[in-house]
Amino acid sequence: MLPLVLASALAAVAPGYGVAVKPASAASGLDEQEPVAVVAAGPGAAAERASALAAGMDVRELAGAVVMGHVATRDPDAGAAYLAENRIGAFLLMGANVPADERELRTLTASLRGDGAVPALLAIDEEGGVVTRLPWDHQPAGGELAASEPAASLTAFAARGALVARAGIGVNFGVVADATGDTTSFIAPRVLGADPAAAAERVAAATEGEAPFALTTLKHFPGHGQVAADSHHTVPVAGQSLADWRSSTALPFAAGIDAGAPLVMSGHLVYPEVDDAPASLSPAWYRLLREDLGFRGVAVTDDLGMLLAAGDPRYADAVANAVAAVGAGADLVVHVVGSGPDTAGRLADGLAAAVAEGTLAEGRLREAAERVLALRLQVGAQTVLLPAG
């Protein structure tokens, strides 16, 4: 159970320096040429520096800091040019970005990160199982972990997080905190428990296992398990009351947050008792995330391109969706589906224009940018030592 010990030790270390983490082969699932992650700065120190960095940024730079874009390329120069031309600081890697060779992937991610202590924030949704971007991830996931003891989730995500770190990626959108026993639901193969209590134990374990290696993301807040429909193609509506949500569906998210997850992803789901807007665009849901669950990290949207794909005319404007999300409380907006070479830049331009027009508070944008910059500083302070050869 070495990763559990390591995660506890890391949590106890004062924001500081030189904590070396080496997972045992038996726990990590890696061979003897496993990575060593060196965590050099805690989130407290990163937050302080992030505030100073944001203070020196203009509004367009702040806007670029809160947009995560995507372009389907495996070319390191093309990827770096995409970030520079759109003037954004975050990139989501999908399957189209991942070559067959791990060393080639590291070359791409090194180019995307750029130089310096404030690298671009790179993310991947490496859940394992049916959502696998890294072909060499053979760890159990989803239903297999749901049917196993929580310790199996800790072990699997310690290994998965190590693979993400070894690839040069800082954030994993990988821990599904939804829970459902409905086998007709599209999310069912991906959940870590058929009921919230069971899922909560495994979500906490997965978060703890991944913590020494990658920044963990819980998804899809406030919970996709209440609806069977696929939010990639529609905006599902859940009939659950707020009281029932608090006593059930919220539990895995609360457990992951208590275990230290630094990111939570909001889903494109409507709970009419709380808000008629999707949670990703809902001030009420971001307020519940912060106030009810005590979350202090980065709230990231699910892919805003999914809202466009849903075909609802209320969400047909990509820029308006991004402005609404940040205004509601999102710190990082993601756009992949239907994204072109300049989509991310247009979103950032639109966020800056909204500040100029008074439809988005500059203070809200600055708060979001500071939170994202803090993550970038944490990633920049982490060194992953790779085996020779």
Number of DSSP-assigned strands = 11
Strand content: 5-15%
Element string (H = helix, E = strand): HEHEHHEHEHEHHEHEHHEHEHHEHHE
Give the termini separation: 29 Å
User: What's the total helix number?
Assistant: 16
Q: Kindly report the average pLDDT value.
A: 88
Give a quick account of the main beta sheet: strands, pairing sense, barrel closure: 8 strands, parallel
The low-pLDDT segments are: 1-33
Judging from the principal axes of the Cα atoms, what is the shape? globular
Instruction: Identify the strand order in the major beta sheet.
Output: 9-8-7-6-5-4-3-10
Share of helix among residues? 40-55%
Structural class of the helices, strands and pairings?
alpha/beta
Q: Please tell me how large the radius of gyration is.
A: 19 Å
Keywords:
16 helices; disordered N terminus; 43% helix; 389 residues; alpha/beta; 3-stranded antiparallel β-sheet; 8-stranded parallel β-sheet
